[in-house]
Write a structure and sequence with these properties.
Helices cover about 50% and strands about 10% of the residues. With about 450 residues, it is an alpha/beta fold. α3 (about 50-65) packs parallel to α7 (about 105-115) and α3 packs parallel to α13.
Length: about 450
């Protein structure tokens, strides 16, 4: 027996999911991969419980995505549950997501029971333990994040040791749930700061988080990669994920590649935005991704409405058409990119995995000395000495490698590709970040 605020035990939550009778996220991903079909998932989250329920049901009724999202508000992400409660009581519309902890696990179950598709919690918490326990009690079977990827892009001063320890408890709970018969999909946020993210940096962070999760007993891991905008480079990165999993994870861990459609500056014109959405979906299909996190034509203007979310899902679904089976990319170029990318990832993760320190201690030490690093981090616990750039062909390379332990030939390959860029760094980065609006000829996109 539980009260309104007490959480059910893990045994009770596993029994609830079984009695609910709907597929888990792991089930859905497994089925999609077996069918050779790209599973689709939108982002969505509002503060009001009735409006959240309506939003989920409307998206499912009109677009039938494979997985639905419960995007969490910023106060809950940072553990400020009292603030979330206060804003919720005053005006739920002032929240930028659904405050699951404040609403409680019983309302979470109401959302779960309102739709056919399984739910995933998407948030951004450096310490997600309370949110995770509430999500599990609600019967939610996928949980995004990690001790690196949900700390360094979002938080200014949370030590890595603290976030890694908190996420270790989340992963250990997933291991315990798996022993009880419920496999929770743990999706890793390789998107990181979402700005010109070098593929090798994204994948290196995901490899380390995946190894940490697998050691705690996680059985299903989704490795999310952010679309950079260069088709062959993005396809190579997605194809690298199963190879890296085979290299670094135990055989019994199920791994899925996930593509986040472009997370940077979006074109303002609807037609241009929709071109980019379809482009991302095709990259996901030909990269062998299991799942695509979709975007909308309203991305340049803020939080999209339901109609735009539905239209984005319908457009992305076109990538599953058999008419596109003959679409081909430059396979020789993809193979070349893949080889270079695997070499870069190995150079970044090997010193950490081979360290005499424990894995979590080695990760924190590597970020402290800059041998692991991410660009444009908000955190004091990453150097952000790595400076990326976009080469003339649109691929993302590393202009300044900081203290990353990349061998000379890998550093030279990156810098050689960027020799023709403007010499003014601010001008060059602005052009690179504005890549797609400029490509579509939207010179006034920042107005």
């Amino acid at each position: 027996m539980t009260t309104a605020t007490e959480l059910p035990t893990l045994h009770e939550s596993v029994a609830y999911v079984g009695a609910l009778g709907k597929a888990t996220v792991a089930d859905v991903l497994r089925e999609a991969r077996a069918a050779g079909r790209l599973a689709l998932q939108p982002r969505c989250g509002v503060g009001s419980h009735p409006q959240m329920s309506t939003l989920l049901k409307d998206i499912e009724r009109h677009a039938a995505p494979d997985v639905l999202s419960l995007t969490i508000d910023a106060h809950t992400r940072l553990g400020r549950f009292d603030h979330a409660r206060s804003v919720l009581d005053r005006n739920p519309a002032d929240l930028n997501g659904y405050p699951l902890v404040s609403h409680g696990w019983r309302r979470g179950r109401e959302l779960n029971e309102a739709v056919r598709a399984p739910l995933e919690v998407r948030h951004g918490s450096p310490d997600a333990r309370t949110l995770f326990r509430t999500a599990v009690a609600a019967g939610i079977t996928s949980f995004e994040g990690g001790g690196i990827s949900y700390n360094l892009p979002y938080s200014k001063d949370v030590p890595l040791e603290r976030s890694l320890a908190a996420w270790r408890e989340v992963d250990a709970a997933c291991g315990e749930l798996a022993e009880l018969g419920l496999v929770v999909d743990r999706e890793l946020f390789g998107t990181l700061t979402a700005v010109l993210m070098p593929p090798s940096v994204s994948l290196a962070v995901s490899v380390l988080e995946a190894v940490a999760a697998a050691r705690e007993g996680v059985r299903c891991i989704s490795v999310a990669y952010p679309q950079g905008g260069h088709a062959e480079q993005d396809v190579a990165a997605l194809r690298a994920i199963p190879l890296l999993a085979a290299r670094h994870l135990p055989a019994g861990v199920e791994v899925h590649a996930v593509l986040h459609e472009f997370m940077g500056v979006y074109p303002r014109e609807r037609a241009h935005a929709e071109d980019l959405i379809l482009y991302g979906a095709l990259v996901a299909r030909y990269g062998g991704a299991t799942k695509l996190i979709t975007k909308t034509y309203q991305e340049a203007y803020g939080i999209p409405d339901t109609r735009a979310i539905v239209d984005g899902l319908h457009l992305a679904a076109r990538a599953n058409s058999p008419l596109l089976a003959g679409w081909r990319l430059d396979e020789a170029r993809i193979a070349e990119e893949l080889a270079w990318l695997l070499a870069e990832v190995d150079a970044l993760v090997a010193p950490v995995l081979d360290s005499r320190l424990g894995l979590h201690e080695a990760i924190a030490a590597a970020f402290a000395d800059g041998t692991l690093d991410i660009p444009f981090s908000a955190s004091r616990h990453a150097r952000s000495a790595v400076i990326p750039g976009r080469a003339r062909d649109g691929a993302i390379r590393i202009l300044s490698t900081g203290a990353l332990p990349l061998p000379r030939h890998l550093r030279d390959r990156n810098t050689d590709a960027l020799r023709t860029r403007p010499t003014d760094l601010y001008e060059a980065l602005t052009r690179d970040i504005d890549h797609f609006p400029r490509l579509f000829g939207e010179p006034n996109h920042r107005l």
